[in-house]
Amino acid sequence: MAQPFFVLVRPQMGENIGAAARAMWNFGLDRMRIVAPRDGWPNQKAIAMSSGAGRLLDEAVLTDDTAGALEDCSYVFATTARQRGLTKPVFSPEEAMKVAAQKIGAGEKVAVLFGPERAGLENDDIARASAIISVPVNPDFPSLNLAQCVLLTAYEWRRQTEEVVAETVEMARGDWATGLEIEKLAAHYEERLDEAGFFFPPAKADGMKINLRNLWSRMRLTRADVQMLHGVMRQMVRWKDRGT
User: Fold this and answer.
1) What is the pTM of this model?
2) Which of 105, 169, 177, 191, by CA, is between 20 and 30 Å from 124?
3) C-alpha span between 54 and 60 (Å, rounded)
4) Low-confidence ranges of the chain (pLDDT < 70)
5) Residue 173: predicted pLDDT
6) Structural domains in the chain?
7) How far is Cα 149 from Cα 97, in angstroms, rounded to an integer?
8) Which of 159, 111, 161, 156 is nearest to 8 (CA)?
9) Which of 175-178's residues contact partners 24+ apart within 8 Å by CB, and which partners?
10) How far apart, in whole angstroms, are the C-alpha atoms of residue 35 and residue 65?
């Protein structure tokens, strides 16, 4: 699948390169380019930190400068948290990856620049970019770790290119209870509570029963839940009968 190139510009620590590779692969990205890594290449600390994403490092394209890493790209984003005095469109990570997906879908090659850990990208790097990605971070502490920034951007790419289910329920204990099963549970409790004199005074009994039935439906019970609640009531009745 076509995807953006993630370009690490002059990264300083092998561990951060490895963590960036791991973050990329978490979200299905594997096109890494590395510009002039401070500690040389290959880097054993990067490999150790990649934790299963070593293939990205094996296939990473190494260049001496930023221009070389971008020579085949037609649209480039630069990630930075600081104002640089350069006139460029500024996108949130979400919108940037939406634009990236559109351009890649149209056949363009897109890259995202990530700067070195200490000071980020230099103006010379950013001047080569088509647009800026700005993360809405705490203005009093805007610095992001290299791998954090890579992960955040990769996540937004995944959101734009894969269907992300907003909410699911893992059914660890079987199926949802049916309407009939809920009805039988409600009847069981109403019968036993009625015998115990719970629905008092009589004028309020109907409303109390409605509230109880509403409780069962609002709880969204599984079949295992229903069976357990039947068992709870049966045990309580047996306990009461033993005491008489």
Assistant:
1) 0.73
2) 105
3) 10
4) 83-84, 164, 173, 243-244
5) 61
6) 5-161 (3.40.1280.10), 179-242 (1.10.8)
7) 13
8) 111
9) 175/222, 175/223, 176/220, 176/221, 176/222, 176/223, 177/221, 177/222, 177/223, 177/225, 177/226, 178/223
10) 6
